[in-house]
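Holo prediction. Input below; ligand is flavin-adenine dinucleotide.
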Amino acid sequence: MGYLIVKKVDLAPTIKKFEIQAPLIAKKGKPGQFVILRIDEKGERIPLALMDTSPEKGTITIAALEAGKTTKKLNSLKEGDYIANVAGPLGKPAEIAYYGKVACVGGGVGIACIYPEVKAFKKAGNYVVSILGARNKDALILKKEIAEFSDEIYVATYDGSEGFHGFVHLLLKKLIEEGKHFDLVLAVGSIPMMKSVAETTRPYKIKTIASLNPIMIDGTGMCGCCRVEVGGETKFACVDGPEFDAHLVDFDLLMTRNRRYIEEERIALEEYKKVCGCKEGC
Amino acid sequence: MAKIREKKVPMPEQSAEERIKNVKEVPLGYTPEMAIEEAKRCLQCKPREGKEFPPCVEGCPVNVPIPQFILAIREGRFDDAIKIIKERNSLPATTGRVCPWENHCEKACTLGKRQGYEPVAIGWLERFAADYERAKGFAIPPKPQPNGKKVAIIGSGPAGLTAAADLAKKGYDVTVFEALHEAGGVLVYGIPEFRLPKEIVKAEIEYVKSLGVKILTDVVIGKTITVDELLEEFDAIFIATGAGLPNFMNIPGENLNGIYSANEFLTRLNLMRAYEFPKYDTPIKVGERVAVIGGGNVAMDCARWARRLGKEVYIVYRRTGAEMPARKEEIERAKEEGVHFMFLTAPTRYIGDEKGWVKQMECIKFELGEPDASGRRRPVPIKGSEFIMDIDTVIVAIGQSPNPLVPQTTPKLKTTKWGTIEVDEELRTSVERIWAGGGIVRGDSTIILAMGDGRKAALSIDKYLSGQDRSWKFKAEG
Ligand SMILES: Cc1cc2nc3c(=O)[nH]c(=O)nc-3n(C[C@H](O)[C@H](O)[C@H](O)COP(=O)(O)OP(=O)(O)OC[C@H]3O[C@@H](n4cnc5c(N)ncnc54)[C@H](O)[C@@H]3O)c2cc1C
Ligand SMILES: Cc1cc2nc3c(=O)[nH]c(=O)nc-3n(C[C@H](O)[C@H](O)[C@H](O)COP(=O)(O)OP(=O)(O)OC[C@H]3O[C@@H](n4cnc5c(N)ncnc54)[C@H](O)[C@@H]3O)c2cc1C
Ligand code: FES
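Structure of the complex:
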C-alpha cells in the first residue's frame, strides 16, 4: 500500500519526474507548495516541490535530483511501484498576482520548482521572463515546457554548452544592465545561486523571492528542524515559507544548517551503494 | 484477614548501569503472582456519601472501575480485569506505564492515606492486565449496530483515539485524520521507547481500529482537507491536534548547529528511529556534552535518551529541584542514570565554532525571590553571575504551544491569546458541530487528561447527534 507511481520520465541523467496518485493533494496543491514523502518503512521524510497537479486524474507531479540516498532510491523506483507516504500540500502557496514583469530564475532541479509558478504568473497576466541555469546542456530540464508559458526565455550553462556561458545570476545581471526592467524576481535553486540572485537584484531594489530548502522532518511546524532566519527573525520554513523575501534571508546560516548531517549522509549513501543493485554502482 | 503489606509489591526493573546501554523498558512488569499479591492490598472502597464513585475512581479522569478490576485480578480472573478496564479506557497499556497516577487514582487511594502505607499500585496493576491481554491476543469486541452518523477526529493522540474508540463503540462511523505517517501523537513521536515501547502503542492502535475506527495518516487538516470541507462530509468534528509547537528562548545563537528543540530530538529518535541509523535513514548527531534546558518530563526524556547514546548530560533549570514540574519518578531515574542537574541556572547565549556548531553556552545564575502567580518562588537573575560552559549539543525543552495549523485555517474558531481553542464545559467550540480537547485546548497536558477530554467530547457528541441535546450555547468572553 501507499501512493502509486503512474508515470516516470527522465528529465536529465540525474533528475527524474514522477506522476503519483494522490487525489487529495492533487485537489489542493498550489504553486510554491511542497509535499513530504517517505519511500518505505525505514525511510526518512524528505520535502519535494509540487511541480504540477491534476485534480481530474488525481495525480501530482514532482521532480527529484539525486543528491543522496533517499533521492537516489526514489529515482530508482519504477512505474507501478508505491511510495509509502506522501503528505501535503505543505507550506504557503506562492503569492501569485499581477506584478507586471516577472523574472523566474531556476537553477538545476529548481527549474522544476519554478515551472508551476511560471504558468501561474503568466495566467495572472504578467509578462514572464524565464531564466534557466544548468551545469551543461544535458542537465538542462523542462526548457520546452517552460517556454510555452514564457514571454521570453534565456538559458545559462556553466560550461557554455548552451546559451550564456556562466552562472545564471550573471545572466540576470546582464539582462538588467542591458535595460530590462523587472517588478519581481523569483529564484529557486541551490543556496549559493539564490544568494547570488538576491545580491544581484539588491542594488536595483527589485522585490526578490527565494524558495528555501532547509532540512525538514514533519513539515507541520512541530519540530523546528527547518528554522531559517529572515530579517533577523527565526521562521519555520515549512509553515511560514518556503518562500521568503530573498533580501532578508540569512543564506549563510541556511548553508551551514544544511551541512549538519553531511557525514551521516555520506554513510547512508555508502551503505546504500552496497545494496542498491544498480549496474553503475551509483 | 492477613495484615495488609505497607509497601507496594515492588516491580522488577533493569538496573541503571544495564539500562543506559539499551532502549528497553526500565520497569519489567508484574508476574501473575506479584499482581495477585498486590491486588490483595486493595480495600475495595465504596463510594463516599454523595459521590458516584469510590475515591480512586473519582480521581481518575476517565473513571476506570478500579476496585472491580483489582478484585478480578485478586481472584485470578485476568480476562475480566482487562474487560472492566476497557469499558472506560481504550489505551490501558499506555496509561499503565506513563500516567501520573500519583496525581490521580493513587493520590486518592484510601490505603495510601494511612500512616506508613503506600497506595495500591493501581497503575502497575493496570499495566499487568493490559500486558496479559496483549500477550494472549485481543478479544475483538462485538460490533455495534451502525447508526449511520459520521464523526471526523483530527489528530490521533490520546484525546483523538479515546474519542474515536468511545464513539465507535456507540455505532458511529469514525474517521481519524493524522498529519504524520504514524498514528499515536506524542505516544509515538514524543515519549521514548524505553518508557513506552512503540510496539505497545501500535497494538493499542490496532485495538482501536478493531472497533471499526478508520485512521487516515498523511492528512494534514487545514492543508490536505479543510475543516469546512469536513463539516460538509461529517456530522461532527473533534479537534485533538495537541500542543506540538516547540518553544524557543529567542536568545543569541539559538540556530547554531547542534541545538535542537526537544520535539526534533525526540522525533528523530522515537518516530524516525535515528538510534538505529543507518538501518533507518534518519540520522541524529549528538556531541559529547549535552545540555538539556528545562525541568519538565520532556526534559527528563531528552536527558535520559542522551544518556543512552552514551553522552555526558546536564539538565539546566532556572529554579530548584523542588520546583521541577517533572514526575518525581522520572527525576529519580534520570539521577540514577547519571544525569547531572544544574539548578538556578539558565542560558543567555550560545557561542559557535568556525563551522557554525555550538561549542559553548553562556549561563546566568538565579536566586529565588517572591512567589509568582503559580505560587512558586520566582527565579531572579544574579547580576554579574554569568559563566561559560563547554557544551556541544543543546536540547531546548521549555514547553510546547498549541499547534496553530487548524485554528489558522479555520478563522471562525475562537482561540485564546495563548492560541488554545476556546470551549465550553462540554468541549463545544464556537462553531456548531465542532468539539475540541486535549493539548489544543489545555496547552501542556497529560495523557489521561487528554483521554478524559476525548471521553467527554464523545459523550457530548453522542448527546448532540442522537438529538438528546441540540443546544449550542457557546459562551466565549468578548
Ligand atoms: C521545500 C523544499 C522543496 C524541495 N524541492 C525539491 C525538488 O523539487 N526537487 C529536488 O530534487 N529537491 C528538492 N528539495 C531538496 C530535497 O529535499 C533534498 O535534496 C533531499 O532531502 C536530499 O535527500 P537525500 O537523502 O537524497 O540526500 P542527503 O544525503 O540527505 O543529502 C545529500 C546532499 O543534499 C544536501 N541536502 C540534504 N538535505 C537537503 C535539503 N533538504 N535541501 C537541499 N539540500 C539538501 C546535503 O547537504 C547533501 O550535500 C526541496 C527541499 C525543500 C525544503
Ligand atoms: C516528550 C513528552 C513526554 C511526555 N510524557 C508524559 C507522561 O509521561 N505522562 C503523561 O501523562 N503525559 C506526558 N506528556 C504529555 C502528553 O503526551 C500530552 O499531554 C498528550 O499527548 C496530549 O494528547 P493530545 O491527544 O491532545 O495530543 P497529541 O498527543 O499531541 O496528538 C496530536 C496529534 O495530532 C496531530 N495533528 C496536529 N495537527 C494536525 C493537523 N492539522 N491535521 C492532522 N493531524 C494533526 C499530530 O501529528 C499528533 O499526532 C508528554 C509529552 C511529551 C512531549
Ligand atoms: S519541518 Fe518540522 S517544523 Fe518545519
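Residues B 98-100, 154-160, 177-180, 185-186, 190-191, 219-222, 240-242, 244, 266, 297-298, 301, 403, 405-406, 438-439, 445-448, 450 surround flavin-adenine dinucleotide (ligand 2) (CB under 6 Å). That is the main takeaway for now.
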